[in-house]
Amino acid sequence: MCCGTGCRASQSEQIIANLQEILLQKELQEEVQVVRTGCFGFCEKGPVIKIVPDNTFYTEVKPEDAELIVQEHLIKGRKVDRLLYLNPETQEHEPDSKHITFYKKQYRIALRNCGFINPENIDEYIARDGYLALGKAITEMTPEGVIQEITASGLRGRGGGGFPTGVKWNFTCKVEATQKYVVCNADEGDPGAFMDRSILEGDPHSVLEAMAINGYCTGASKGLIYIRAEYPLAIERLKIAIAQAEEYGLLGEHILGTDFSFDIELRYGAGAFVCGEETALIHSMEGLRGEATLKPPFPSERGYNGFPTNVNNVETYANIPVILLKGADWFQQIGTEKSKGTKVFALAGKVNNVGLIEVPMGTTLREVIFGIGGGIKDGKRFKAVQTGGPSGGCLTDKHLDRPIDYDNLIQAGSMMGSGGMIVMDEDDCMVAMAKFYLDFTVEESCGKCSPCRIGNKRLYEILDRITKGRGTLDDLDNLRNLGSVIKDTALCGLGQTSPNPVLSTLDNFMEEYEAHIIDHKCPAGQCKALLSYVIDPYKCTGCTLCARNCPANAITGERKIPHVIDTKLCIKCGVCMEKCRFGAITVQ
Amino acid sequence: MNKVKSLDDLRKMRESVRASLDLREKSDHPDQMVQVKVSMATCGIATGAKEIMNYFIEALNRKKVDALVTQTGCMGYCYAEPTVEITLPGKDPLVFGYVTKAKVDELIDKYIKEGILLDDILPITYTVVKPE
Description:
The complex is a heterodimer.
Chain A: H1 5-9, H2 12-25, E1 49-51, E2 56-58, H3 66-76, E3 85-86, E4 93-94, E5 106-108, H4 122-127, H5 132-140, H6 143-153, H7 165-174, E6 181-186, H8 195-202, H9 204-218, E7 222-228, H10 232-247, E8 263-269, H11 278-285, E9 309-313, H12 314-326, H13 328-332, E10 342-349, E11 355-360, H14 365-372, E12 382-387, E13 394-396, H15 406-411, E14 420-425, H16 430-444, H17 450-467, H18 473-489, H19 493-497, H20 500-508, H21 510-517, E15 533-535, H22 545-549, E16 555-556, E17 564-565, H23 575-579, E18 585-587
Parallel strand pairs in A: 6-7, 6-9, 7-8, 10-14
Antiparallel strand pairs in A: 1-2, 3-4, 10-11, 12-13, 12-14, 15-18, 16-17
Helix pairs in contact in A: 2-3, 5-9, 5-12, 6-7, 6-9, 8-10, 9-12, 16-17, 17-18, 18-20
Chain B: H1 7-25, E1 34-39, H2 42-46, H3 49-62, E2 67-72, E3 84-87, E4 94-96, H4 101-114, E5 121-122, E6 126-128
Parallel strand pairs in B: 1-2
Antiparallel strand pairs in B: 1-3, 3-4, 4-5
Helix pairs in contact in B: 3-4
């Protein structure tokens, strides 16, 4: 019996009680066991029951159905048709859960080995076809052939930009040089994102293998992984993986008896967000300041130490071996017209099933948040979801049924980004959210170009003013104008995308900005400066507890007489509300 | 360990490691070949997966149950960490979430020893690509 939050809210505990009672009546308690499970990711059809070993899947079960299930299914062996999952496409009841489409909602390509293999044992990777794609590439295919396959697959960069991977490889391949480099960008920096870390911690060899394949294609003999020092476990597992691959001769000189040699080293970053931008990343690896430079020249022409360099993200690499083994045609069939394959998302925020998911491109936000994610925590109302971290924008109710792919998200004013997905509910203030991200960008801006260094700071100051109730209506125009100027003129991806959280909240939640400015109210009750704590004189018993705990001595009143808060002295810490035993203090 | 010298070598090696892993998974010796995988990515470790893994090994020894305990990466159920996957010989793997030390004892006594299911099973909600 599913006891995820969604099913629990629709009486799954009552169903369990009924099942147990009926089983006891029929003396089947020894034969049949009722077990509570976690979320099936199928909350819209809940409560759900799965019966094993015959894999029957019942949906929308009611407490009174318990008897029918025991009587018909468990005793007589006849499945209860009415409760079987109704396939929306064929309009037929599915007797076996193996055929149910929701299992296909999540399809794992990049995460294929995460949680299955021991990441510190190369044998387990090899048992699951590890290094076979590299073997196939270097013994049976030409570099051009491999690049063609990757180009034909339609794979696009998973780090955020969505540039076609095959095209990028081809650029580096075409440049003549004595030395070339392959770089893996593992500088995952968005707040709330942990896709790359999970892949490196769970399946480091898939990235090493793909980098070697890339080396073969582009003519590079050296690979570098740029990883932030804040990921010690990922670093440790990568080191173990590199040592094991070298021991097996799958990295190093003359791999698999061919002329191809390739080795990989780690480079550590100090955790600057801007170093996820490829030119800044390369400068950081060179020992220079992590600052972006103008493109062109692109790294594929002049990259690490001046040599042609191909930079791809962790998740992009993790896809490569499977594409080579299964072919571009197979990969082409997954996803949408212009975005092929799957995408890994780190689902976080006010969603029940926080976790790491991988869905085919074209899956809707609704399926992700209300299906796999199990809906919003504590039954609250969904407000928005931020995709793409500080570079992305927020998406709302009206975007829920839009298929997720690179182009759709950009059209909706956000972006794919590397795959962070932060869900917000009715208690989240969108102005404060935009301010949070701007605070982050101001902190992380490298300071090289003025639009980003000065512009973002001004955006932040305006937002700060608004959240403190000192904003004016002119500020709204200023935010919009300044935001679009920064986007147009900043040097690198960081500045070109940093106004997105502001612009998209202006587009979608103008009424919240206006409420802050005109009414001096924060509708979500989050902006402290706009709140006032009030004591309800009818509920207050005059126990003096709040007054004794108030750190600002803002509460006065005689014993057994209703107390009063002096709003001028109140620092809005909320201690009084916490301490009050009579629920007499409210926020307005 | 000898180096893998050719693609054929690699294929042969895959078959042999597969066979030995299969043996581990599908052995006929039920009391010997129970497999326990503990999800040990940063998210798991942060919620105590390391302690759970150590305790699992210790409890198995104490209860004289032969089982292979290994670590693995993130299974994706960050909301229910620590998570543990248990494969009894001849059965599909089952993932249990919210594992505590008390739960480990229960898992060994009830599920591993007697095959009795316990609460907090995490349903598999995805399919995985099979490369070849």
